[in-house]
Amino acid sequence: MSPSRLKLGAALLVLASTFAVAVALACSGEAMPEIGTELYHPLVYGDHPTVEELSALGRKIFIDASLSASGKQSCASCHDPKAAFGPPNALAVQPGGPQLNRFGFRNTPSLTYLHSPVAFTEHFYESEPTGGSDDEGPTGGRTWDGRVNTGHDQALMPLLDPNEMGNVDHRALLQRLVKTAYAEEFKTLLSPPGENVFDDMKASVAWVSIALEAFENSPREFHAFTSKYDAYLRDEAELSPRELRGMDLFNDMKKGNCASCHTSSHKNPASHLPIFTDFGFVALAVPRNTSLPANQDPAFHDLGLCGPLRSDMKAHPEYCGLFRTPSLRNVALKKSFFHNGALHSLRDVVEFYATRDLQPEKWYGHDPKTGKPIKYNDLPEAYWANVNADAPFKPLRNGKPRLNAAEVDDIVAFLRTLSDGYSAYVPPPAASAPAAQTAGLR
Question: Using DSSP, how many helices (H) and how many strands (E) does the chain show?
């Protein structure tokens, strides 16, 4: 094995451990150490590359449309920095391919708050307060079906996807890379001593993915924790009455029950700032999006964990229809929702949870032959038993939904507090004179 390949293998291991340390610190709320030090990131080639250098290079790669087959599409085309690194428009899926006329069948997720997913496991055991543990089932990984675990593996996927940036193979990507304005910088930074990294196709492509991973782990841009809710948890802002009601409904197991999958946090100095996902998988029976080209074939179904993009779970029918729970941070900036982009309003999403089984005709339409409401029109009946029926899907005993219209609005108001970039500090109300006097006597 050549020295460059040995160095590359070492780099991958180092970066994996580096980001694990960063994740632990970011989630704990502790101060991040300086990057580029031997303690935080042991250097690969003596004195380089530092995480800062890799991140800067990754930023250039991220916005470079010349790396695509069309020459018009970069990572940022679908993951717009102005939209929390999510889709820039309301399209369910973004166009791609050499002529920008090809479409996949999954909605572009935001890249924010993806810094700490656990590796995919079929059986995730969560400790219980009683001292035991509970099998939460499939958990972790990245993408809607959790089929990759690392940021660099995920970063490489769109570069080679025929429906996205469309490079036919690694060699095609390398041929485009050596023509970029930053090719010399790439070579200088990442070549082993006395060698040219571009002579090793696998090493070059791997470094592209590692640089993207480094950039996409930049705390200031990808997990800044600067929402109004974060300010509230830090006692730097007050939520409005509607937002407070929405938060209570979000956490109430008998009402919204949202926190059962989108784990939140209460005001507690010992609590970590929440990511708003448990990284688990759930079947929601989202309505079929008839605008997707793939769905023009009535026999086609995107079944998430059990295919078609993931192949190792095909023998598990109990996983069909399950998709990974995304973070709700910055969700109010999105214009299309769920894995297939079927809904285009955050309010509709919350209402869907509350009325899916009570008013199926609203979401699935009617059978043209019988006139009866259709049920779960994007999931074969053989897998209906997998569909989640907990609150708020489960109606009240009187047959009414768990959430009324006003409560749906309250939850939406709370979800809007999860968008980064909050700056309007609102000090807590001053104590009344009697209260202040009483406090002074204690």
Answer: 14, 4
